[in-house]
Amino acid sequence: MSTESIESEAPSRMRELLRDIASGSVLRTLLAILVSFLVGSLLIIFTNEQVQNASSYFFSRPTDTFSAAWNAASEAYAALFRGSVINFGATNFVDAIYPLTETLRFSGPLILAGLGIALSFRSGLFNIGGQGQLLMGAIFAAWASFQLDLPPVIHLVVAIIFGLVGGALWSGIAGLLKAKSGAHEVIVTIMMNYIAVSLVTWLMRTPVLHDMTSGENPTTRAPAINAQLPKIFGDSFQIHLGFVLALLGAVVYWWLLERSSIGFRFRAVGLNPAAARTSGIDVGRVYILAMVCSGLFVGLAGVNQALGRTGSFTPSID
Amino acid sequence: MKLELRSITKRFGSLVANDKISVTVEPGQIHCLLGENGAGKSTLMNVLFGLFQPDEGQILLDDQPVSFAGPGDAMAAGIGMVHQHFMLVPVFTVAENVMLGHEPTRGLGRIDLAEARRQVREVSERFGFEVDPDALVGELPVGIQQRVEIIKALSRKAEILVLDEPTAVLTPQETDELMVIMRQLAASGTSIVFITHKLREVQEVADTITVIRLGKVVGETSPTSSAHELATMMVGRDIGLTVAKNPPTVGKAALSVSGLTMFARSGVRLLDDVSFDVHEGEVLAVAGVQGNGQTELTEALLGLGERVFGSAKLYGKELVGASVRTVLDNGVGYIPEDRTVDGLVAEFSVAENLMLDRSFAGEFVSQHTIKFSKLDEFARSAIAEFDIRTPGPAAPAGKLSGGNQQKVVLARELSRDLKLFVASQPTRGVDVGSVEFIHERIIAVRDSGVPVIIVSTELDEVLELADRIAVMYRGRFIDIVPADTPRSVLGQLMAGVTAA
Ligand SMILES: Nc1ncnc2c1ncn2[C@@H]1O[C@H](COP(=O)(O)OP(=O)(O)OP(=O)(O)O)[C@@H](O)[C@H]1O
Ligand SMILES: [Mg+2]
């Protein structure tokens, strides 16, 4: 009835905004990047010493200030570019593109975690438990990576599956509670974050995850060679299979939400749970499934963190 | 105040929703806008109210051109509007809702709730509304909410009042009361623009009638025109206002309901021991004043209700306790009472809405992947068959006019293999041409041997479609009577009076 439609107006605004962000558009993305560049330049300019000196006589020679500002901003961005995309000062090709491959390597977990959270938003859920899910994914994968002893490839696959399960388990609990008791997922996922951090920190002091000979600090053991994400461009680069997994994740996400009937139900529930229910969609089940799927993506981000290294890690990897 | 809309044009992309529309409303006049679904009536009123900016044309109040940047300007100029979909805050009291946006204050900007209450009481008394200023809006029946909307407009000294399909959600009695109020207002000098699809109301209350078709004014006429003339003018072709139907060929009992009872959380019985059969090939119409358990009855049958007891067997299969999906899979087609809440996902395209209850299996899905080309094909044929006015299958359903949204729901539910069809207010907000069409389709479903349950607060509709009429009163079937029962008897039954 009419009152209900009004009642749902405020949250639906919010949902609309989030969905807009999650579904995104090229223009918006470009604008966001442009604006951040501009704001960044201003910060650089105002904190730059040369600019400050030149501005003290701004009214007698304004051009000095402007050229100092230009120099400061352009130098900063050039350095940024050199450090993160292509090092044009390098003497060989490998050194020149090394920064780019590093950027891609770091983008892997960010992409995956972003997909997971976006999935929950589109299903009308505010999964803000990315931290906990990522940690659980990471330690599940880590545990499998050094506690099991399996042949190559199989070990990696098993460790990845462990990570997926870890993430999905953690988010699934929130989904289950929401579906069965109506407990709000925002509260639950936040609390699950705290639980995850404490749990992981504790486990990293026990033999489950910790190498007891290596001191008191909470760390994991290093993943077995067989379970490490292999480097994809040879040993000169750090970039590993995790980036490929992230790209695969993006494709799966697209199919799931835009093409599959499962995603169709996710979106229907996200936009109008009442109509979804009337159409025979089990809203509670969708909440659980959507949280689990969300956690799978975030868990894979954790896998990326845990297995995309040769050494140990600490609870601060999220 | 005199209102003149001069040559208003409003476009949405390539669609011209209003095409050089001119309307003049004299002071103290009740001016009806009549037109098919999607003709552009609400759009025109939204332009007047400052919600849309016209692409061309002028608004004149007492011959002075005005322009409104938003509803605030329009209200300040003396225009009040009751929207097709209410704009009230359910958790606020009546007084709080009425003052919202122009809160009376005392020193230091403190809100003067007493003053707001006084205003509500004053307006209520003047027009004989019985509205408690301290009642929570969300707990009021729709008819009273409607009045709150009107009080809201009047308390701002509206001299021009726009009522966009106010009667779509009202019971016949409430409608009669509303029309009395409209006449009172007009007599005291308020100009009223009244939009409705019910020709009887137009004839009863209008001073002048403007008919709009496809965004253009097709003519002005007076309320002395017959319903048939009005309908023909509106639709642009000769239409019959009653469905020619053959007597039913009634088969065996398909749905057997016995002892169906449903409790509210508070323990109140919403349905009280309801028992009946519906046979193949017959329409059982459920009549009654809104709020006597009709909604709960359909929800209980669909598996949407909670705390439901008793039994409802469709060809021997128990529906009570089954999930909605199981019920639908058993061949039950369902038109929910409120399309915007339960029938459609407004942001989804028309095509996506057409597959809303078919995402698990069926022709549009294989291997969990949606076959969009097939869906698009189906959507196109449904749009053509049901004459849904939309830019295309990809248009968001929420952007369609009210009646066209209703047709989307109908097209979806009637395009499945049905074993039982349950429709609640199937023609709410639908224009007369489409009412004819929808009624024909419902009779066609009946004639194909499917049992049909129609719930309607519209007595005309009940009499039009029914083979038998069940009257609901306080959660019970007070009686089931033949279709030729006189209105007066039905009216008494609806008020809870059984023939001794
Ligand atoms: N915000 C919008 N964006 C795009 N198109 C719109 C929008 N609002 C209305 N329309 C279109 O404009 C046309 C006129 O719609 P309008 O709501 O004015 O019809 P109406 O005469 O009020 O119909 P009904 O009797 O069904 O309420 C329709 O085709 C509708 O799809
Ligand atoms: Mg309208």
CATH superfamily of the largest domain in chain B, please?
P-loop containing nucleotide triphosphate hydrolases
Q: N- to C-terminal separation of chain B?
A: 53 Å
As for the number of domains of chain B, it is: 3
Which consecutive residue ranges of chain A, at least 5 long each, have pLDDT under 50?
1-11
Helix content of chain A: over 70%
Structural class of chain A: mainly alpha
- CATH level-3 fold name of the largest domain in chain B: Rossmann fold
Low-confidence stretches of chain B: none
Word description of this protein:
The complex is a heterodimer of chains A (318) and B (500). Chain A is mainly α and 318 residues long. Chain A folds into 2 domains: 1-84, no CATH class; 98-307, no CATH class. Chain A has helices at residues 2-7, 9-23, 26-47, 49-55, 62-84, 93-122, 130-147, 154-181, 185-203, 241-259, 261-271, 273-278, 283-307. In chain A, helix 7 packs antiparallel against helix 8 (154-181) and helix 10 packs antiparallel against helix 13 (283-307). The radius of gyration of chain A is 24 Å and the shape is globular. The two termini of chain A are 45 Å apart. The model of chain A is unreliable at 1-11 (pLDDT under 50). Chain B has 500 residues and is of the alpha/beta class. Chain B contains 17 helices and 24 strands. In chain B, strands 6-9-10-3-11-12 form a 6-stranded mixed sheet, sandwiched between helices. In chain B, a hairpin with a 3-residue loop joins strand 7 (105-106) and strand 8. The model of chain B has no long low-confidence stretch (mean pLDDT 89). Bound molecules: adenosine-5'-triphosphate (ATP) and magnesium ion. Residues 12, 15, 17, 35, 37-43, 84, 389, 399-404, 431 of chain B line the site of adenosine-5'-triphosphate.
